[in-house]
Amino acid sequence: MISKHSHRKDEHISLAEKFYQDTDVFAPLRFVHQSLPKYALSEIDLSTKIGPINLQIPFYIEAISGGSPHTKDINQKLATIAKKTGLAMAVGSQSVALGDASLVETFTVAREVNPDGLLFANIGADKTVDDARHAVAMIDADALELHVNPAQELIMPEGDRQFNFLTNIKQIVEGLSVPVIVKEVGFGMSRETIQQLADLGVGYVNVSGHGGTDFAEIENFRRRDKEMAYLKNWGLTTPESLMESRPFQDRLTVLASGGIKSPSDIAKCLALGSHAVGVAGTFLHLVIHENIDEVIRVIEQWQYGLKTIMMLTNSKNITELQKKKLILPLSLASYLEQRHLT
Ligand code: FNR
User: Fold this and answer.
1) For residue 11, how far is the Cα from the chain centroid?
2) Cross-strand pairs, 61
3) Fewer beta carbons within 10 Å, N or C terminal of the chain?
4) If DSSP codes are grouped into helix, strand and coil, which group holds residue 176?
């Protein structure tokens, strides 16, 4: 019989796909076009770094899958795509496998398929240092994503009602030898949150903002009563969250995810200061609807698309792209003013 944890993992996949939509929080932000490109396409360098980790491509497959037979298949497909394209990949939360050995293979499949690839482990910040070490060792991970998801938990009838994130995060950051990336799950991060994380010694954050997969909507749909519908759209968008991270970008490595649907969205996250960009909902949507070769073609097209934007903004590499100023819509300019971020 399928466990209730595995059932929840399958539901997350089907509901993320059911609610996958074309909202675009990035469209109103614009680059300044340059008509006289300084660099040839062959000179554009997409490589970036997450601390000691070198990425040839500045976007990666964000945490989605694992924890059930169906999500094992998805991890297998995603890992095949990661191997063939050179993308880094995060597995979904391994928490379920810490207490159920039969689920371990739904995550280790990602390492078996792609022995030399960059792989990120993932657990919740409610877990201990030992759990964190176990998750990293399970897939021989290059980094650990530690997710904070209080909004999701509070909407889930079976979710947590109290959080000891700060103590756990501090111990895990101090106790692990690989980079620990504290990440949201699509509700974004405020300056206050990032300040708290910086004070704990966290070196890497993924703001994972609102604009794509909405776990408030997903968890509300899973409830018998639908009373939490008012939290749909809760959170800070990915552009807002990146703006909130600005004061810390000289101290912390900032990553982004949440609502990425195109190379232009990736370029905008990089220009707002992120070092790399995770894609969950859109890649899930693609693997559900397309065969592996088609997904690989799309990812190669995204790399070309990102290079064209870098040519048209005279950015030779990611460091130069990070210095480009975007034109902001009035709503975002007003947000910055109200948050004293200008
Ligand atoms: C997720 N996400 C997620 N994040 C995490 O840290 N651990 C997890 O186990 C999961 N599980 C998960 C399942 C599914 C089906 C989806 C679509 C997403 C959240 C994900 O990594 C990301 O932070 C958000 O989805 C926002 O990015 P997108 O989906 O808008 O690109």
Assistant:
1) 20
2) 89, 279
3) N
4) coil
Residue of 14, 106, 144, 213 to mutate, ligand 1, most atoms within 8 A of C-beta: 213
What is the distance in A from the centroid of ligand 1 to the CA of 342?
Answer: 30
CB distance 169 to 182 below 8 Å? yes
Please name the residue whose Cα sits nearest to atom 29 of ligand 1. Answer: 281
ipTM: 0.99
Compute the C-alpha angle 179/280/242, nearest 5°. Answer: 65
Q: What is the pLDDT of residues 58-111, one digit of tens each?
A: 999 999 999 999 999 999 999 999 999 999 999 999 999 999 999 999 999 999
Q: For 74-85, how does the pLDDT look when each residue is reduced to its tens digit (9 = 90+)?
A: 999 999 999 999
In which element (H, E) is residue 313 found?
Answer: none
Q: For the packed helices 238-245 and 330-338, what is the interaxial angle rounded to 10 degrees? A: 40
Q: How far apart are CA 129 and CA 173, in angstroms?
A: 8
Classified as helix, coil or strand, 66 is: coil
Give, as one character, the DSSP assignment of residue 248: G
Q: Does residue 132 contact residue 172 with C-beta atoms inside 8 Å?
A: yes
Distance CA 273, CA 21 (A): 26
Structure letter (DSSP) for residue 249: T
Among 40, 34, 38, 45, which Cα is nearest to 317's?
45
- Tell me the one-letter amino acid at 61: I
Residue 44: closest CA among 57, 53, 54, 55: 57
For residue 279, the cross-strand partners are: 61
**Does the CB atom of residue 279 touch ligand 1 within 6 A?**
yes
208 lines ligand 1 (CB under 6 A): yes
Contact between 140 and 204 under an 8 Å Cβ cutoff? The reply is no
Q: One-letter amino acid identity for 39?
A: Y
Buried b (16+ CB within 10 A) or exposed e, 37-67: eebeeeebbbebebeebebebbbbbbbbbbb
- Report the residue among 22, 59, 64, 221 best suited for mutation to probe ligand 1: largest number of ligand atoms under 8 A from its CB: 64
And the tokens for 153?
A: 């938990």
